Amino acid sequence: MSNALLRILTALVGIPLVVGLLYAGGGWLLAGVLLTGILAQREVYDMMAAGGLAPHRKEGLLLGVLLVLWALMPGAGAMAVLVFVLLLAASPLRKGTAHPLSSLAATVFGALYPACLLGFLVRLREARGPLVDGEAAFWLALATVALVWITDTFAYYAGRAFGRHPLAPTVSPKKTWEGAIGGAVGGLLGAVVFRLTVLPFLDWPHVVALGLIGGVVSQLGDLAESRMKRSVGVKDSGTLLPGHGGLLDRIDALLLAIPLAYLYLAHVAHLFAGAP
């Protein structure tokens, strides 16, 4: 089976699953984000191990789970702080750890990226405000995710058709400025379509901002993960998804876009009441 066909089949399964979890929201979405976060965090730790680091996997995964649960359970945030304090206190006492500070930093980073960042998808879906009920929150969450997908598609085809000038040759040699610009245009166009169809309450300046988050910030998230992989000499973060590589390879662009979209909509657009 060709790689392209595997990618299509994986997308045919993955896209309806993501949309279904976003529609269900609540515990269903939380469970999906938890599972995704754990699997992606394991891939991060595998990459770190390939680069010579020694994260404390079990403690890090526990910290990652608590940081995701924090999206719906405020008490989980306090528990996450407790786990971090215990990790910090125990790090000098661990036997067989040549570089305790590096191991501690790797452990915490693996919990923040991707687990904590992914948890903002739950916050976005469950946010409420004067203009945002459950249905509107679903469309905001779906739009944020879909704009990243649209950006990726536009960037791919624009790069294939017009790509001449490398964007970041030492990080991702195949990416071009033409592809990046095409992706940004796709993100903006997608945001306009969402505004005209299912997000009529969103003012146009915020539409542009959401389009830029999906069209520009998501590409920076992709490049950030590419930089991590190149620094440890691996091509893919894993082999979980046929035709796509690792799970982290599929969600890397979301990891910067989702938190920024939530924070923008909450604290600049002021759409959500009492948002943290």
Characterize the structure shown.
The chain is mainly α. It has one domain. It is 74% helix and 3% strand. It contains 9 helices and 2 strands. Strand 1 and strand 2 form a beta hairpin. Helix 3 (57-69) packs antiparallel against helix 4 and helix 3 packs parallel to helix 5 (100-126). The mean pLDDT is 90.
Features:
mainly alpha, two-stranded antiparallel sheet, single chain, 276 residues
Structural class: mainly alpha
The overall average pLDDT, rounded, is: 90
Note the overall shape. Answer: globular
Distance between the termini: 47 Å
Across the major sheet, the strand order is 1-2
Unreliably modeled segments: none
The Rg value, from CA coordinates, equals 19 Å
Helix content: over 70%
Number of strands: 2
SSE order, as H and E? HHHHHHEEHHH
Number of domains: 1
Number of helices: 9
Strand content: under 5%
How do you describe this structure in short?
With 276 residues, the protein is mostly helical. It contains 9 helices and 2 strands; from the N terminus they run H-H-H-H-H-H-E-E-H-H-H. It is globular and about 60 Å long.
List the helices and strands and how they pair.
Layout lengths: L2 H22 L1 H25 L6 H13 L4 H17 L9 H27 L7 H29 L3 E3 L3 E5 H21 L6 H29 L14 H21 L9
Helix pairs in contact: 1-2, 2-3, 2-5, 3-4, 3-5, 5-6, 5-9, 6-7, 6-8, 6-9, 7-8, 8-9
